[in-house]
Amino acid sequence: MVPAARRALLSASFNQDYSCIALGTRTGYAIVNCEPFGRVFAQPAGPTALVEMLFSTSLVTVVPRPDAPESARAQRLQIVNTKRQSTICELSFPAPICHVRLNRRRLVVALASAFFVYDISNMKLLHTIDTAQDTHGLCALAPSSEQCFLAYAAPLATQGEAGAGSVVVYDLLTLGMACVVPAHRTRVACLAFNAAGTLLATASEKGTVVRVFSVPDGKLVSQFRRGSYPARILAMTFNAASTLLCVSSDTGTVHLFRLAAQAPATRHDDPDEALERKRSTSLLTAWGRQSKSLGQAVAGSIGTYLPASFTEMWEPARDFAYLKLPHPGVHVIAAVSNTLPQVMAVTSDGHFYVYALDLERGGECALTKQYSLLDSGMT
């Protein structure tokens, strides 16, 4: 979630199985259990820009935000054991930390134009990916230890906007490229893997169409229409069974799309994206599996065309279910519970909402519970 800089809550994120929420506040950080709702850990550590959990273990990553000045940059990462309340290690980076992603094999620190990949078992630096452009650290890491993929916006700065919607899928076990997905015409705004690391959801800055690709082959399997008007996609999450995709935007509405078990589908672009499908699927060869100059390599690789079947027509599916926030105008991340038929939403004004989800008929989800994340009581 984008930090709400003027509020007590600076950041919030679900853990990998959506059982807990990690909170960064102006006074420290905390861990909140989703079901039953309640705070399980709190540390008064001062302003905390980012907090991420490793599933439901006691290992968390913490990015402190300097107290003063207000614009001070968060460039320090701490690995903390919450059970022992001790810092395992601390790392400093040459630029502000945008995001931290982790699973049981790898930890990725995302800066604006670089990704640092670590072996989480010993925090040894394995690889540095230099994107050669400012991507705001946009990335997604598959929770799976076997399908350990990192997805990020392809570095195409020297190509202008023409190739801005491509996504790189990088294998963090072999430290080589898996595929390049020509996902959108405009710049990618949001990325998400399913739990198994076999599906990748993408959304562009336009935010009208969401696409799902199989990994590691990069084939399109589903396409959904969020709406007709542009919107900023804030977060996307798959449910545990990979049958639903939850899409949160700045419109105050969260959409849920149903994923059918099907063979890879052919695609139909938005009208203004039709010409963009002439994009390379042979970038992998051009880049090389160990390229350290990704930006230049990609910029020189665009030019071949997608297979003809990739441009065949099909209509994007509409949402299966949706929910509306009580107070629009806030940033939101949402996820489907792994244990109950409900959708959980976390907002930047410090609220946690629970909605009932009809798994058979879909439709509008009904608000059933509402809590404050800044205390442990019900609001």
Automatic annotation (TrEMBL):
Transmembrane segments: none
Superkingdom of origin organism: Eukaryota
Coiled-coil features, chain-numbered ranges: none
Any single Pfam family the record assigns to this protein: PROPPIN
GO terms under cellular component: cytoplasm
Keywords associated with the record: Repeat, WD repeat
The family this protein is said to belong to: Belongs to the WD repeat PROPPIN family.
Name of this protein: Autophagy protein
Originating organism: Malassezia obtusa
